[in-house]
Design goal:
This is SAM-dependent methyltransferase. One of its GO terms (molecular function) is methyltransferase activity. Keywords: Methyltransferase, Transferase. It comes from Arthrobacter pityocampae. An 8-stranded mixed β-sheet has the order 3-2-1-4-5-6-7-8, sandwiched between helices. The radius of gyration is 19 Å and the shape is globular. Helix content is 30%, strand content 19%. By secondary structure, the protein is of the alpha/beta class. The protein starts with 25 loop residues before the first helix and ends in a 7-residue tail after the last strand. It contains 9 helices and 8 strands.
Length: 267
Amino acid sequence: MVPSRLRPPKPLGTITRGTTNPNRLRRVDRWLAGSHGVRLRRAADPLVVDLGYGAAPVTAVELFTRLRSVRDDVEVVGIEIDPARVAGAEPLARPGLSFRQGGFELPLAGRRPVVVRAFNVLRQYGEDEYEAHWDEVRGRLAPEGLLIDGTCDEIGRRSTWAAIGPGGPESLSISLRFGAFTLPSDVAERLPKALIHRNVEGERVHTYLKALDRAWLDAASLASFGNQQRWVAMCTAMRAAGWPLRDGPARWRLGEVTVAWSAVAPG
């Protein structure tokens, strides 16, 4: 028997269902490479973590490929609690891409990642648990690092994510494939754990989603020009109404919109 003081610490967290599909996380990867490419380029240590990548490592491989187009020395580490999943991923390891067992404690030998992407992970925890895991991870980030806590549907058509920095949550992003929704609020079932149970009357996120719906309906006359033009008009109207959107038309044309966390934070 190995003395307890010599045993590695138990990974923090529980094994997820592990469901994954190729290209499922393309929307958040596109946002990281676009909106936060500068964050990667100026990082002293361009270390990125794919936390809880699931039963197959395809999303970690895709993240590595996409971010290498931003900075060719980006290093991606896929972290999974299940040792069988880590063993199954090892054949895909290469310089700059590796896999290891662990959880929210981030077993990185003291290194501080500039990005931790945790997608479809925290939604499987209780509402009383997510904040402690946020705190655990953000305490291990680089000074300008981000934890991305997100959720999407099975093939990545509807997606949301919260960006959490060392000081706390900063923004909420919504990204939808045109033609895959009737109203923007259709994404509600994919909100991060911090917000999914707050989509009720009186909560900020509920007000925000309803405002998006109204602006989308008000822009119906532009539907003949395409949903892209209609989405841009919706976002333009939201900004004019005082919503603190943190992006602009270049992101809006992708079916994406990001708002400051203060506008949707739980009351």
